[in-house]
Write a structure and sequence with these properties.
single chain, about 230 residues, alpha+beta, 14-stranded mixed beta sheet, about 40% strand, globular
């Protein structure tokens, strides 16, 4: 049988390239009916809601969540869940926003000083109707390295104000996730916890380890090329 090793290696290299997202200038937003299947930190308990906004009726409120990075990892995305009874406002559907990542002192710490990372994006995928209820909104970031044992906070911010520029995220009203808490800011400078030990419904996902990705792609490439060899 023909030696397939060079072809397998070439194919797997191509698959690695195709599966790697290049560094992007903006956050990618996606909306789903289902939660992420894997995460290194999450809260799934539900109770109420907290409004992320910068609207003419109520003003500014940044919203975010802190969490523990238990090991060295690369943050890939953060997902939040829309409340089951509050559609996003029309002013938020295509609004510009930013995502900032801060290191915080502990599970109850809040951001201060300069963010470690800030990236911008534009909201998309929402309708502003009841069909958005309970949807999962994922913010896919340019990969961010986090250090194991440290606590971090991810904060969402609408930099400009408009009518009905608001999204209500689902929260728990108790400290169901012990590695962090829901955080707000009404001036984009000073931060505090939301409620009494509340957490957003959230899922923080990491980039898979390179070895895991390569092994998976090698396996896929081998299967494809083996099938191909049977028809040559």
């Amino acid at each position: 049988m023909k030696n397939l090793l060079p072809s397998i290696l070439a194919a797997s290299s191509l698959l690695v390239v195709l599966s790697t997202r290049p560094a992007a200038a903006t956050v990618l937003v996606s909306v789903s009916d289902t939660a992420p299947t894997s995460s290194f930190a999450s809260n799934t308990a539900t109770a109420g809601g907290v409004q992320w906004r910068n609207n003419t009726a109520s003003g500014l409120r940044d919203v975010g969540q802190s969490f523990l990075a238990s090991t060295n990892l690369t943050l890939d995305s953060i997902t939040f869940r829309i409340a089951p009874d509050a559609a996003p406002g029309a002013g938020a559907l295509t609004a510009a926003f930013s995502v900032s990542i801060f290191q915080v002192s502990s599970a109850s710490g809040v951001p201060s000083g300069t963010a470690l990372f800030t990236e911008t994006g534009t909201m998309s995928g929402l309708t502003g109707t009841s069909s958005d209820f309970s949807k999962y909104v994922t913010f896919d970031l340019t990969n961010v390295a986090l250090t194991g044992g440290n606590y971090y906070a991810v904060m969402l911010y609408f930099p400009t104000q408009a009518a009905n520029r608001n999204v209500t995220w689902q929260v728990s009203n108790s400290a169901s996730y012990t590695g962090g808490m829901a955080i707000i800011s009404t001036d984009n400078t000073t931060y505090s916890g939301w409620g009494s030990g509340s957490d957003l419904v959230f899922y923080a996902t990491a980039v898979p380890e390179p070895s895991t990705v390569v092994l998976g792609l090698l396996g896929a490439a081998f299967v494809v090329l083996r099938r191909r060899s049977r028809h040559v």
